């Protein structure tokens, strides 16, 4: 098992290993005195792991309630958030009580934002069960819900008290969800670590899962410790995301999943930067092969003009300039601020 400590405004440990769900009660009791705890989970994940987590928490002295909601991005809504607040209030949760987010990115974001806002903030722990949540969304304290104007537009920074990434849960993930998470994993290789990228190029991912998740979390730790509130370095975690979000939006969030859309976004921006002379040594072919090896797409049938139009509404944009993340070599990302007109030329030429 690896333990990575994130020293942010609130410090906490991320445990990465096998068999953690059955020990989550004692591990949680090390950082939070036994109290009422609400397991927040969706109807796909709860039947698989809910009872194990509940009985472990109960054995450690917690009084457990369970809030289970329908799976899918549509549940990351204000409606569902209000229902969750109502549930916590009805169960008489106080500021000394806490939440356990058991599931993927939707669950972590929703439960985290409920924890950030209910009674002006209560503690929560993240128990991510998808690859995407283990390597990215459960660490770093970004929480949010979607509103009709866009994804993640209402949220807060709220660091968890503990993250338990049980690698065994990845064994039950359907292939498409595993591949989706690999989009974010390839991103970490591209922005920070050529060594990780080389391992991903080999295609031998499943036998190195614990090391891969640990490497990604450690990269995220370093980025979050440097820039917790996303004013500078943390933006590099958005490599491939400006175009990726645009793809998701153009397809009304019913087409490519997030990690797949990010994969296409990473390739498109790298290829465009290469064509425009921003990147000296070509790397896009290597990226494309790595994406293919990991069952990820690298192109999409949407006109570049449409992708441009839908990406300039992205919330990462400031004034008439846009921050684009470019990797000039594998393992190193740069934030490039450019006028929107130049960005348009970059991706539509
Ligand atoms: N998922 C990107 C970030 O945490 O900043």
Question: Care to give the gist of this entry?
Answer:
The chain has 349 residues and is an alpha/beta fold. The protein has 13 helices and 11 strands.
Structural class: alpha/beta
Bound molecules: glycine
Quaternary structure = single chain
Largest beta sheet: what is the strand line-up? Answer: 1-2-9-6-5-3-4
| CATH class descriptor of the largest domain | Mainly Alpha
CATH superfamily of the largest domain: Dehydroquinate synthase-like - alpha domain
Backbone shape: globular
Give the averaged pLDDT, no decimals: 96
What are the main properties of this structure?
349 residues; alpha/beta; Dehydroquinate synthase-like, alpha domain; 7-stranded mixed sheet
Give an account of the 3D structure.
The protein is α/β, with parallel strands linked by helices and 349 residues long. The chain has 2 domains: 2-172, Rossmann fold; 175-348, Dehydroquinate synthase-like, alpha domain. It has 13 helices and 11 strands. Strands 1-2-9-6-5-3-4 form a 7-stranded mixed beta sheet, sandwiched between helices. It has a two-stranded antiparallel ribbon with strand order 7-8. α5 (131-137) packs parallel to α8 and α7 crosses α11 (284-293). The longest helix is centred in the middle third of the chain and has 18 residues, at 175-192. It starts with a strand and ends with a helix. The mean pLDDT is 96. The chain binds glycine. Glycine binds at residues 136-137, 140, 142, 230, 234, 237.
């Amino acid at each position: 098992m690896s333990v990575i400590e994130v020293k942010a405004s609130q410090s906490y440990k991320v445990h990465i290993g096998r068999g953690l769900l059955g020990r989550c009660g004692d591990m949680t009791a090390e950082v939070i005195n036994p109290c009422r705890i609400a397991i927040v989970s969706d109807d796909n994940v709860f039947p698989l792991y809910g009872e194990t987590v509940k009985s472990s928490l109960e054995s450690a002295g917690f009084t457990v309630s369970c809030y289970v909601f329908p799976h899918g991005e549509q549940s990351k809504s204000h409606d569902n958030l209000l229902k969750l607040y109502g549930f916590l209030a009805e169960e008489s949760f106080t500021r000394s009580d806490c939440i356990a987010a058991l599931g993927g990115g939707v669950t972590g974001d929703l439960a985290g934002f409920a924890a950030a806002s209910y009674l002006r903030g209560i503690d929560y722990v993240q128990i991510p069960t998808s690859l995407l949540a283990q390597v990215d969304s459960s660490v770093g304290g970004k929480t949010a819900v979607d509103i009709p104007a866009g994804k993640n537009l209402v949220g807060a920074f709220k660091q968890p008290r503990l993250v338990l990434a049980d690698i065994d849960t990845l064994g039950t993930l359907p292939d498409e969800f595993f591949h989706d998470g690999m989009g974010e994993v390839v991103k970490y290789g591209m922005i920070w670590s050529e060594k990780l990228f080389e391992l991903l190029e080999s295609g031998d991912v499943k036998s190195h899962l614990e090391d891969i998740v640990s490497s990604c979390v450690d990269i995220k730790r370093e980025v979050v410790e440097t820039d917790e509130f996303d004013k500078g370095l943390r933006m590099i975690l958005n490599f491939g995301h400006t175009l990726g979000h645009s793809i998701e939006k153009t397809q009304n969030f019913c087409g490519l999943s997030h990690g797949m859309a990010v994969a296409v976004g990473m390739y498109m921006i790298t290829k465009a930067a290469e064509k425009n002379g921003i990147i000296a040594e070509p790397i896009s072919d290597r990226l494309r092969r790595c994406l293919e090896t990991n069952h990820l797409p690298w192109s999409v049938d949407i006109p570049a003009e449409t992708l441009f139009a839908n990406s300039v509404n992205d919330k990462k944009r400031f004034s008439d300039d846009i921050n684009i993340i470019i990797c000039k070599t594998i393992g190193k990302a740069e934030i490039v601020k450019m006028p929107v007109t130049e960005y348009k030329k970059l991706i539509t030429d």
